[in-house]
Amino acid sequence: MSWDREKMCLRASKELKDGDYVNLGIGMPTLVANYISQDLNVTLQSENGMLGMGPFPLKGEEDADLINAGKQTITSLPESSYFSSADSFAMIRGGHIDLSILGAMEVSSKGDLANWMIPGKMVKGMGGAMDLVAGVKKVIVLMDHNAKDGSPKILNSCSLPLTGKEVVDLIITNLGVFEINNGIKLLEYAENVSKEEIIKKTGAEVLFTN
């Protein structure tokens, strides 16, 4: 047994601190918005030009004009503000965003990140991923530990085109929580996951402290 997506997003939300400005990447990371503690004063930023996003709307309460960077309908808050995409990227590039939670296709043991394209497949471009990993203070990757074919996504070196080099600080997968600091260190096991399973399903050496 391992964490499902709900538990992965809940665990990722525990990394947020009071006062943080946070960008949630497209895909599973956007779901983290639903698990942020009400005791925390956290401001979510969307690169398409919004500061202060609420959780996803209930069915029937969606506003088609209110979307995040992944084109998902979202909710606003009393303190929400809106601005141009240029201003949004100025926030990111200027180092004003504390934390970014992103998905990934591959992460290396050095913290290299590949999350924007697979060679041979049509993509619109890198989008804001390159700016996010270069401009924010901390990068967390939230992803399944293995690809659909079972191949590891945590590797000694990435085979896909890189979004950024040595930019990832923490990885949260369905098998556990891993810190990147001179290699990969396991910080926390997911439920009923063994050391042997992590070794088998990881394409890089993992340092275990327990």
The total tally of domains equals: 1
Element-level helix/strand string: HEEEEHEEEHEEEEEHE
Let me know the largest β-sheet. Answer: 10 strands, mixed
CATH topology: Glutaconate Coenzyme A-transferase
How would you describe this structure to a colleague?
Helix content is about 15%, strand content about 25%. The protein is α/β, with parallel strands linked by helices. The protein has one domain: 3-Layer(aba) Sandwich (Glutaconate Coenzyme A-transferase). The strands form two sheets. A ten-stranded mixed sheet has the order 4-3-2-1-5-8-10-11-12-13, with helices on both faces. The longest helix is centred in the first third of the chain and has 9 residues, at about 5-15. It is globular.
